[in-house]
Design a protein that fits this description.
The complex is a heterodimer. Chain A has 15 helices and 13 strands. Chain A is of the alpha/beta class. In chain A, strands 3-2-4-5-7-6 form a six-stranded parallel β-sheet, sandwiched between helices. A five-stranded mixed β-sheet of chain A has the order 9-11-10-12-13, sandwiched between helices. In chain A, strands 1-8 form a two-stranded antiparallel sheet. In chain A, helix 9 links the parallel strand 6 and strand 7. In chain A, helix 1 packs parallel to helix 9, helix 4 runs parallel beside helix 6 and helix 11 crosses helix 12. The mean pLDDT of chain A is 95. Chain B is of the alpha/beta class. Chain B is 43% helix and 11% strand. Chain B starts with 5 loop residues before the first helix and ends in a 16-residue tail after the last helix. The relative contact order of chain B is 0.16. The mean pLDDT of chain B is 97. Classes of the chains: A alpha/beta, B alpha/beta. Chains A and B meet through helix 4, helix 6 and helix 7 of A and helix 5 and helix 6 of B.
């Protein structure tokens, strides 16, 4: 009998790092704040005490240099997991990530591998502002040789982290900060699925909603309310960005004929656009209407909550778009009422009082 | 400082001459348009690669940069593999995927050269960290130029290397030019090695054109790194004779002081060591025999390399992680 744990997404990551350190003697866990008292939103809690300061360590404020050092350590047989508390800091390491980690295996003819995991945390809210809450995953996904994963559920967070550690190539592990507190089931004995497929989280015949990371949670919220009005949404979690699993979405669209993509990134050159483009090229005739994309606006997030509160699309917008696609506009008002919340959009839940 | 014996010096001469003649052979054939990648020749700088690598075992590791042919050959990289790589052939040391600026020969402990300035410096330090973690007693050497000393990542790396006392030897080949821009336009007037010393590395500078001098400095640095004394820094002064990128000389462009190149040519590492050997009564016929041996090896290497096939088109997408 396999044991099924109920864990928050953040705790699932901690559990995976713990199991990874136990399973892989060459794994290192390194990053600014890894062993500090806040332990990267508690995702590294207790690990230094358990595995020692040689394997679980902080680092100098030198993102590019330390990424290169982790690449070199990986070439020498280590399995480093490097953490950036904000994806924004990974920009300082672009040279090493793009020019070295991603290319090494290819440019040296497959003879060397870089088993490196880079955790990057995206997120929103509570005054994170223009330089602490960007959603830059598409920039990284464009680089051949970097695997980019963005798990949504606690179960996927656990298994993807362990798969990423075991992977011989560089993996960018994108965590949405607002997922950290979302609880789910973790079956540690679940068969390995690899780092390459989307997951259908909800079956429905009427409309396909393909969503990324935290937008999947919003899509599920919308789907619950739509069900009450007799509308069944097929919700696909696009948990792996490279390669992008168009097949799973295509199968869904073949059934529903309607596609709504919800991305948690600025609209410009987003994965959402890539998904729509690929699907349209393959299956134009399966679509009864033009697909819809819900994404962030193409401007930085302002810090002030008076403005940021209107920046992020959520379940309400997803449900509205679904109703429009299905030509069920008369339902708009009641669906809006059901999804409306007085919770500010810069807060993940009522217990949250900031700061991150 | 230990002085190499005459036999050692003759061996160092041979290794330098082999690099010089290989580079000249590449330059001579470059205009044929079959080597279709940028090449950065190291003619004039051979003493540094040879003087440092002479002390390395096969299991010690070397990282290099865009000007890497000399380091690759000095560490024991395959000459045929290098030539085939320049021609983009399947038998190239990177299967033709890298060209002159990306070289690797794992069997020789030459891990990699890459052309983004500073790119290999942290990777070398990370490799040294890995070696240290498994108590291997191997040392990692990374070669870079004076231009690289301006890159932030080099200073980030020095900080961590000292923090962790890594078995790393950083070799700065100070040839005074970044492409065609002189050092004084890029850096204030201060000694590069002293900045490294301020980071906490054991650092010295010396004449990079006298192989016996490089040999002695490197011996000390490598022993210290191997003995757990932490990272070492060598600043070695030298000069690049050919143009930054390509087979020719470019003194007519006038970016050097008049007479500067000529003065450095008079300090040629081969000329200097040849004279020392002559003083030690190593006959001209011995050096001539070395010339002939090397000439034959290079001619054979070119014909062997060129006899091989081009990479299969179907291999284009191989080795991408997805």
């Amino acid at each position: 009998m396999s044991e099924i744990l109920t864990l928050s997404y953040g705790a699932a990551i901690r559990e995976a790092l713990d199991d990874g350190l136990a399973r892989f003697p060459d794994m290192l866990l390194i990053g600014e704040g890894v062993p500090d008292p806040k332990t990267i939103f508690a995702t590294t809690q207790g690990l230094r005490e358990k595995y020692g300061a040689e394997r679980v360590l902080d680092m100098p404020l030198a993102e590019n240099g330390m990424t290169g050092i982790c690449i070199g350590a990986a070439l020498a047989g280590m399995r480093p997991v490097l953490v950036h508390q904000r994806i924004d800091f990974a920009l300082l390491a672009m040279d090493q990530l793009v020019n070295n980690a991603a290319k090494w295996h290819y440019m040296f003819d497959g003879k060397q591998s870089v088993p490196l995991v880079v955790r990057v945390i995206i997120g929103r809210g509570w005054g994170q502002g223009p330089q602490h809450s960007q959603s830059l995953q598409a920039m990284f996904a464009q680089v051949p040789g970097l695997k980019v994963v963005m798990p949504t559920t606690a179960g996927d967070a656990y298994h993807f982290m362990l798969d990423a550690i075991a992977d011989d190539g560089p993996v960018l592990f994108v965590e949405h900060r607002w997922l950290h507190h979302v609880t789910g089931q973790v079956d540690k004995d679940r068969p390995a699925a690899g780092l390459s497929r989307a997951a259908r989280l909800r079956e429905g015949r009427d409309v396909t909603i393909a969503a990324f990371s935290h937008m999947t949670i919003e899509a599920l919220k919308a789907a619950v309310v739509l069900t009450e009005h007799g509308i069944e949404a097929d919700v696909v979690d696009m948990r792996c960005l490279t390669p992008l699993d168009v097949d799973t979405v295509a199968r869904s669209v073949a059934k529903t004929g309607l596609l709504l993509v919800a991305d948690c990134a600025p609209e410009m050159a987003s994965l959402g656009h890539t998904l729509i483009s690929r699907l349209y090229q393959r299956q134009q005739n399966a679509l009864k209407q033009a697909p819809r994309l819900i994404a962030y606006p193409n401007h930085p997030v302002p810090t002030t909550h008076f403005l940021a509160n209107h920046y992020y699309p959520g379940a309400e917008r997803i449900a509205e778009s679904a109703l429009e696609l299905l030509d069920r506009r008369p339902l708009l008002d009641s669906v809006r009422r059901q999804l409306q919340s007085d919770l500010a959009k810069d807060q993940p839940d009522r217990s949250f009082v900031g700061p991150f | 400082m230990n002085v190499p014996t005459t036999a050692e010096l003759q061996d160092l001469y041979y290794r330098m001459l082999r690099i010089r003649r290989a580079e000249e052979a590449i330059a001579a054939r470059y205009a044929e348009q079959h080597m279709r990648c940028p090449t950065h020749l190291c003619i004039g700088e051979e003493a540094i690669a040879v003087g440092v690598c002479a002390h390395l075992t096969e299991s010690d590791k070397v990282f290099s940069n865009h000007r890497g042919h000399g380091h690759y050959l000095a560490k024991g990289g395959s000459l045929v593999g290098l030539i085939a790589e320049l021609y983009g052939l399947a038998a190239g040391c990177c299967g033709g995927r890298g060209g002159s600026m990306h070289l690797s020969d794992l069997s020789a402990g030459f891990i990699a050269s890459t052309p983004i300035v500073g790119g290999t410096v942290p990777v070398a330090a990370g490799y040294a960290w890995g070696e240290q973690r498994r108590n291997s007693n191997n040392v990692v050497v990374v070669f870079f130029g004076d231009g690289c000393f301006e890159e932030g990542v080099l200073h980030e790396t020095m900080n961590f290397a000292v923090l962790k006392k890594l078995p790393l030897v950083m070799v700065c080949e100070n040839n005074q030019y970044s492409v065609m821009t002189p050092l004084y336009e890029r850096q204030p007037a201060r000694d590069i090695y002293q900045i490294a010393a301020a980071h906490g590395l054991q650092a010295v500078s010396g004449d990079g054109n006298k192989v016996e001098h490089v040999h002695a400095l490197a011996e000390n640095a490598l022993a210290a790194a191997r003995n757990g004394e932490g990272p070492q820094f060598l600043e070695l002064h030298t000069h690049r004779w050919p143009e930054h990128c390509g087979p020719n000389e470019d003194d007519e462009l006038g970016y050097r002081m008049p007479g500067e190149l000529l003065a450095w040519k008079q300090r040629c590492p081969l000329l200097h060591t040849g004279r020392t050997l002559a003083d030690a009564r190593v006959g001209a016929e011995i050096l001539l025999a070395l010339e002939q041996q090397i000439g034959a090896e290079i001619a054979l290497a070119f014909s062997e390399a060129l006899a091989g096939p081009a990479p299969a088109l179907a291999s284009m997408e191989r080795h991408v992680y997805v």
